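Example record

The entry below shows one chain as it appears in the dataset: sequence first, then structure tokens.
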Amino acid sequence: MDKQAAYADIVKQVNKCNLCDGTTARSRDKTNQVGLDHLATNHVNLWSYWQGNLSPEILVLGQDWGELPNFDRIKIFIDSEAYRKIITIEKNATDFNLVKLFDDVFSVNILKEQKLFFTNSVFCYKKGNLNENVCTSWFRNCNEHFMSNLILLLEPKCIITLGNKALHGLSYSGNIIYTNGSLAKIKNISLTALLDNPNQLWWENFNKNKRIKLFPLFHPGGYSARNRPYQQQLNDWNKIKPFVN
């Protein structure tokens, strides 16, 4: 099976999934879910329409989409060109800061180039508004059932997680280890401490036959940016630059 077909198979499995309560089921109704056929798209997550290279240099994992998108908005997001335009118009904090960070640190214009793969750690879409809680079980289900296969298919040079929840979610898909093979106790260590630690982190699949460099970073969205201003985040990203290539 070629890479495109294998990816389509993962997307098909995600579209059929209805494991979680409190999120949208993409293809069916449940008592406490919203069934929206138009969410059964051709990517694992709407974010992947912006950056969906199946042989990416970097895999970026966010937390979750943020809020339930309506049909008109989805028509924008699944059109890569329209998506890029809306970023420059609306200046959503997460997307807009990522544009600046990739340009400032890696000299990559992610509004024009598609060298990367973006997805949220929670593939589906929570009901309610942007500030609704995100359940740990959602991260566990997506990562346990789909994330490892996605990572092994993409084979990125490295993985960047945005925020604690994306990092902790990733631990359900594989081991988070140091170069010497010891497990990193990520739930007991702050992001600041992880960034200051000179020991390289790796994501390793549970079969222990694949390792990929892992860089946990702060989320660049509005709330996190208030606690970790852009200049500090830029310094964080510059720390990992020598190790990405």
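Notes for this example: The longest strand covers residues 211-217. The chain has one domain: 3-244.
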